Amino acid sequence: ALRGYWVYAPQEIGAVADRIKLMVYDWSVSSPGPISPMSWVNLVIAYNDPIIPNHKLQLGVPAYGRNWGRKVNPDEICPDGALRTTSIELENMLGVIDAHGAASTLVRHNSHEMFFTYDVVESGFSTTPIPAPRFVPPSPFAPRVPGAATGSGNGLQPALRLTPPNIQISCTVRHFVYFPDAATIQMHAQAALDADWSGVVLWALGYETADVYRALANTTP
């Protein structure tokens, strides 16, 4: 390996293995981004070409996307679980797009994957402590307080609750979704065949849509 990954010995593995499947996906995990950008795929192919016999190599291609939920308004507190990241099988992607009316935002990203966004107002409860209010320096002159500290009238107000109240809260969450479609998967397969690799493997069988196989049929050795 170039740096750090000393546990991988591709040249030694390539000398004894019949097939080596390289899982070239999960490029983006912790933050929104493509699953398997073509620029990365091409780098992986170029790196392994001189090390492992090409007829032993197979390219792992994703048939799923990922959905990242991110808070729109920084001042809002979101319910527990609202800012989650989930995976979506390709066969279920159209249902997500239709359910959220996101077709108008659907574009092909410069990674050659598809990308869309949609907003959802999430409601529920939160166990996250409410931050303390911003400190405002007091006036040098003490105000006259006519009432007692009861919270009634113009008197002093009760202490601000800093622990989450037992009521529902809401926040706006923007979802960022990246996924490879049939055209993306065909690009991956064509790149592997152009490099004389033995083929591709999908992760995972059952995630794909029927048009994936029609697209793969159009790849040329």
What does this protein look like?
- Strand 1 (20-23), helix 2 and strand 2 (57-62) form a beta-alpha-beta unit.
- The strands form 2 sheets. The protein has a 5-stranded antiparallel beta sheet with strand order 4-3-7-6-5. It has a 3-stranded parallel beta sheet with strand order 1-2-8, with helices on one face.
- The protein has helices spanning 10-16, 38-48, 90-99, 182-194, 210-216; strands at 20-23, 57-62, 64-71, 85-89, 107-108, 114-124, 169-179, 199-203.
- 22% of the residues lie in helices and 24% in strands.
- Helix 4 (182-194) runs parallel beside helix 5.
- By secondary structure, the protein is of the alpha/beta class.
- 22% of the residues are buried.
Key phrases:
24% strand; five-stranded antiparallel sheet; 8 strands; single chain; 5 helices; 221 residues; three-stranded parallel sheet; elongated; alpha/beta
How would you concisely characterize the structure shown here?
This protein is of the alpha/beta class and 221 residues long. Helices cover 22% and strands 24% of the residues.
User: Oligomeric form of this entry?
Assistant: single chain
Radius of gyration: 26 Å
Report the uncertain regions: none
Q: What is the helix content?
A: 10-25%
The percentage of residues in β strands lies in: 15-25%
